[in-house]
Amino acid sequence: MNEIKLYNRWSTNVEVNDPGLKNYINLKPVIVPRNSHGRHAKKKFYKSNMNIVERLMNHLFVPGHKGKRHKLTSGKCVGKSFNAYDTVKECFEIIEKKTKKNPVEVFVRALENAALREEVSSYQMGSIIARKAVVTSPQRRVDLALRYFVQGTYKRSFKSKRSLAQCLAEEILAAYNNSKDSNAIQEKERLEREAEGAR
């Protein structure tokens, strides 16, 4: 039987090296990664059953969102699943051309590099707010890495002549190389520095 390949081009038979993320980066074979239409919204942890490329596409719909506010409006991105599909496909083509490697493997390695391990949690102690370093759960590690990839991509492409696919490819390649040029790597290091100070 023929192997099912992503976009009918790239194998998803990739090993996840980080043991903490092994159960949360799903690489089950799909030809067409399409958005989930919210089918996992009400079930806890079910998003881990979705292909990781499909989850990246879902994050592309709301890239400007940061915390409880929109720093940059991203309303024009919402609901355009074919745009997200084409963006990710074009991005993977750019990555393949630059690295001569399977882009799915490059993306998984970038995700492992960008997944933070520790962050700060605030809690009330009497009349003061105390901050404490906590270990980040694996599900949240993947979610935050995907969010920072997409926010960095949107920041790069905002008022720029480069396409969203080119900026996404640059962001993933920078994270793959553990470079400070990556927004995800910058955010990871910032949060881990904060956690170290609150330990």
Overview of the structural elements:
The chain has 6 helices and 4 strands, in the order αββααββααα. The protein is mainly α. The protein has a domain at 46-117 and 136-189: Orthogonal Bundle (Ribosomal Protein S7). The strands form 2 sheets. A two-stranded antiparallel sheet has the order 1-2. Strands 3-4 form a two-stranded antiparallel sheet. α1 crosses α2.
What order do the helices and strands come in, and which of them pair?
Layout: H1 52-59, E1 65-66, E2 69-70, H2 81-99, H3 103-114, E3 118-125, E4 128-135, H4 138-157, H5 164-176, H6 183-197
Antiparallel strand pairs: 1-2, 3-4
Helix pairs in contact: 1-2, 2-5, 3-5, 4-5, 4-6
Question: TL;DR?
Answer:
The protein has 199 residues and is mostly helical.
Distinctive features:
about 200 residues; mainly alpha; Ribosomal Protein S7; two-stranded antiparallel sheet; two-stranded antiparallel ribbon; 6 helices
* CATH homologous superfamily classification of the domain at 46-117 and 136-189: Ribosomal protein S7/S5
CATH class of the domain at 46-117 and 136-189: Mainly Alpha
CATH architecture term of the domain at 46-117 and 136-189: Orthogonal Bundle
Give the quaternary arrangement of the chains: single chain
The strand order across the widest sheet is 1-2
Outline: globular
Describe the biggest sheet?
Answer: 2 strands, antiparallel
What percentage of the residues does DSSP assign to strands (E)? 5-15%
Q: Order of helices and strands, N to C?
A: HEEHHEEHHH
Structural class: mainly alpha
Q: Output the number of helix runs.
A: 6
Distance between the termini: 53 Å
Summarize the amount of helix as a percent range.
40-55%
The count of DSSP E runs of length 2 or more, i.e. the number of strands, is 4
Mean pLDDT: 85
Question: What is the radius of gyration computed over CA atoms, rounded to a whole number of angstroms?
Answer: 17 Å
Which regions are unreliable across 5 or more consecutive residues at pLDDT < 50? none
Stated plainly, the CATH topology of the domain at 46-117 and 136-189 is called Ribosomal Protein S7
